[in-house]
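Q: A reviewer asked whether we had any structural model of the full assembly, not just the individual parts. We don't, so I'm hoping you can provide one. Inputs are below.
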Amino acid sequence: MSEFALTLRHELVGLGGIVERNIYLTKRYLLWDIAFLVWTIANTLTIVFIARGVGLSAAAQNSLETKLLVGGVIWAFLGIIFEIVTETVAWERWEGTIEYTFMAPVSRPVHLIGMGVYAVIYGMLRAGILFVAVVAFIGIHLPHANYGAALALLAIASVSFIGIGMMCAVLPLISPEKGTQLGFIAQGLMLVVSGVYYPVSVLPHWMQWIATISPATYALRGDRASVLHGAGIAWADVWPLLVIGAAAIPLGLLIFRLGERYAKKHGKLKRSG
Amino acid sequence: MSTLAAPRSLDTSVLAETPAVEVRDLRKDFVRRNRKAGLFARKRWPAIQDVTFTMARGECVAILGQNGSGKSTLVRLLSTLLINDGGEARIFGHDAFRETRAIRKLVNRVSVEASFFKKMSAAENLSYAARFYGMTPKQTRHKIPEILGRVGFPPERRNEAMEHLSRGMQQKVALARALLTSPVLLLLDEPTTGLDPRSKLEVQEFIKEVRRLHDATILLCTHDMNEAETLADRIGILDRGELLFLEPVEDVKRRFGVETLEEAFFAATGRAFEEEEHEDDEQREVFG
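A: Here is a predicted structure for the entire assembly that you could use as a starting point for your response.
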């Protein structure tokens, strides 16, 4: 086997190890995860029920419920991705394993992408359960929904979400006490400008401009069209996601690399920070 | 086949000819706010100052020092977790600060804290560590119970969560984790601190066995003088970031005309080994 093939195999085994470890952790914290899922379902229900109080016709109400539901599900999905990727460092520091992981011979891109792969798998699963639970509870009619297109677009958007998550993952490395909370701020800002429960057009102009560089804008727009009207994947949503993803992953890796270097220089790469 | 075979990527001729560790004028400082001197004032603490030493392949060297002396900083520099502020360090010829990927394949460590995912079992934690070194599930299925048995950990308990294991058991799993990856340089940072006497002896016996059977080079950082004397070929004292000497234990005693290492420490530093630390030592300990 050539040196390149050996290295590739080594990295893929390492990537599998990250996913495997996260599966172990999910199994061990299953009750906590179930509790959090129930909370997310309740939270999404409170938002979707808003459509019932507006006094619309049955069709318009169904449409608004669907729009809010898609917003809630994507918020939850994005939340999971951000939580898992940005806590790449925070988890390890909390458990005390950070030094062992960061001195292991696996490249940082593979480490971070492994976290991202698990986040997408786990996030899709949770988003699916959330969607089905809310649809069943409220009784939303989705006769034209194109779930394949909605999931495919979400998968494409995930690349950008992971890249932005990587940029935020560096925050706990630089600031052990405040880093994770700063990641939440980044997540919140992205959703505010992306039209999570309202059209982007209602935002001030400067926020609409920021919305154009947020991947969530295109994921929300495309998924709403697929779930409500059965639309396929629109190129108008795909190409911005591809461009943002192509920029976000390398940028995320670069920022993380610089952050890791800073942490090594200042002695922050250890369990107590 | 030996559990501790040399990693495939390692050129064995390089191993034979090159010193295992070469450290020259190594320096690491930490900077912290100094409120006494002003709102934005910073103070620089030298954690390691111009440390120079060499270790031959297969050698066991003990570095003795009080808390805050710089032992952990030295280990973290050699395990690619810190970037130096001066000097250089080479491990089997590789620059420890530039060729980190090559270094990481050669080095593993056991620190004073066992450091595991507490809810995960010993087997799961070891699997996780092994994957980073390219070991597949097929390879670890048999290797994990085997190596746990060798460190004196009952293999039938390998599926219990780490949080349910005693400190001694956790430290044995930490040893197993280090050895599972076949390191040619093993960095032991107070591996027996906090263990009961029996566990301590078991761990020490295992360290001797690793060295005897597998030709691993070992850097042992400890404040246990008996442990250093029992395990090491040469002993050095690291005091407030400075390596005072590094010699065979008999040479140390002869140099200072003393009977014990405690007396040698006193003769070299003017302080008793267990003496109260200075405020700067505390800062060094926090950062190091």
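A: Points you may want to mention in the reply: The interface with chain B takes residues 6, 9-10, 13-14, 16-18, 20-21, 24-25, 28-29, 95-97, 99-107, 261, 264-267, 269-271 of chain A (CB under 8 Å). Chain A has eleven helices and no strands.
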